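Take a look at my tokenised protein here and describe the backbone shape.
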Amino acid sequence: MSLSLKLALTGVVLFSAGCASAPPRSDYSQFRTEAPRSILVVPVINKSIDVNAPDYFLATIAIPLAERGYYVFPVNMVKSVLADDGLSDSNLVHAGDPRRLGELFGTDAVMYISIERWDAKYVVLATSVTVELNYSIKSAHTGQELWKNHQLIVYQPQQNSGGGVAGLIASAIVAAMAKAAPNYMPLAHQANIGAINAKGTGLPAGPYDGLFGKDTAEY
């Protein structure tokens, strides 16, 4: 059984936008004024201890942005072009002027993402797998931030899969499997959905979506 199925059957996924109460509605005034048609996703900053996290995560972000109605530059092509231009360090890219990226790629906006956590912690008979991300979109014309979001998702297998010793052994096995080979991808997908599609805090429909300009009540 895949871990993604285990998420549905044997675990608990906790979602958070950074606080216990619902996050306040975002201010979309500048975003709608600029109405970006294209988004450039630059290499992510990785603050976790997993060196593979940035590559795994980048494989999850383009499709939800495109489905929301935006043209998304191919992430691997972007990474290669930046490296050729001497910008292989994601920290330098994030610290730079987004207007330079606009000139280089001809994009309307730039998405910056930092991986705050991408880890699994084993405690007695349970493993918690955590993905925490910060998202930001800046104008490639003015450099101004147009939108930001924070996502924290934690997967916790059930502490007991049954009664008695057998249940404890089953719980230990599930926790050990999650610790030995944690599958972060379902959590990354859920984080992206929460960041991009949530009403009031996600992204308004882009120009390649039929709802473009018609969702002002939600965004």
